[in-house]
Amino acid sequence: MTETPDAAVAPAAGFRDIVRLEGVQKYFGSIHALRDIDLSIGRNEIVGLIGDNGAGKSTLIKVMTGVLAPTSGRIFIRDRAVDLGDYSVRMAHDLAIETVYQDKSLAEKQPLWRNFFVGRQITNRFGFIDIKRQKKIAEDILLNSIGFRGVGITVDSTVAQLSGGERQGIAIGRAMHYNSDLIVLDEPTVALAVKEVRKVLDFVRRIKESGRACVYIEHNLAHVHEVADRLVVLDRGRVVAEIAPRDMSVSALTEFLIDLQKAH
Ligand SMILES: Nc1ncnc2c1ncn2[C@@H]1O[C@H](COP(=O)(O)OP(=O)(O)O)[C@@H](O)[C@H]1O
Ligand SMILES: [Mg+2]
């Protein structure tokens, strides 16, 4: 597949919400995993999705990104209703919605530049992979999209040489490259040391700076409170609160979530 040359360009205007869910229900057999979800993701906002284990966070983003079909309800992308019979991961990609899956999406032994183009090679007019151009784009992603300046990593480094946080950066940089309007992250900091978590938070900020939106699932409330523009709290499949971080301290937020758990 041929790529457009401009890495990390700001997405086009002309719509209000990137994604909107209306009355979404999801059942797994008798488990009611999502209950009457109404949720919009606006342009260029970081939405932190929080809630207890099993609250439905992963299911929600899977429905949003075409991995799982909702049992009922409606999905709008850029304000247009999606035909749910057709909605798929493929279509979500085509509509500029990218999901970063935990590390497994990177090829350990391959240089970084190859990792940016897995499955989406740039070919020249003879049909050969344009290595020079891919390296140049990869370098632009490293330096400009995710800011790997002066840390001893080049496009020829392998994934195996990277720390956990840096790997997340590569995966996020790759998602940014595909002209995405929305990047979805499901617990990207799981199992990372504190220093590595800081890096990931920095990458999340870069998503926003680049003009994109981000849905960020994070179990550490202090971290998500720090980077999100809006926090959406899920409890047993329902959206129970939408909070602006400036209106609620981390400790008040923690209390709130503990109280929800107590009510179970
Ligand atoms: N593929 C599945 N099959 C059956 N039940 C599932 C499946 N995925 C999730 N669930 C159930 O749906 C509920 C929500 O899970 P999940 O979305 O993974 O929560 P979270 O990401 O907030 O921890 C849980 O009760 C979970 O056991
Ligand atoms: Mg989950």
UniProtKB/TrEMBL annotation:
Domain of life: Bacteria
Record-annotated membrane-spanning stretches: none
Keyword Cell cycle: no
SMART domains: AAA (SM00382)
Domain ABC transporter, first and last residues per copy: 19-261
Keywords: ATP-binding, Nucleotide-binding, Sugar transport, Transport
Molecular function via GO: ATP binding; ATP hydrolysis activity
A Pfam family assignment: ABC_tran
UniProt-recorded name of the protein: Simple sugar transport system ATP-binding protein
Organism the protein comes from: Prosthecomicrobium pneumaticum
Phylogenetic classification of the source organism: Bacteria, Pseudomonadati, Pseudomonadota, Alphaproteobacteria, Hyphomicrobiales
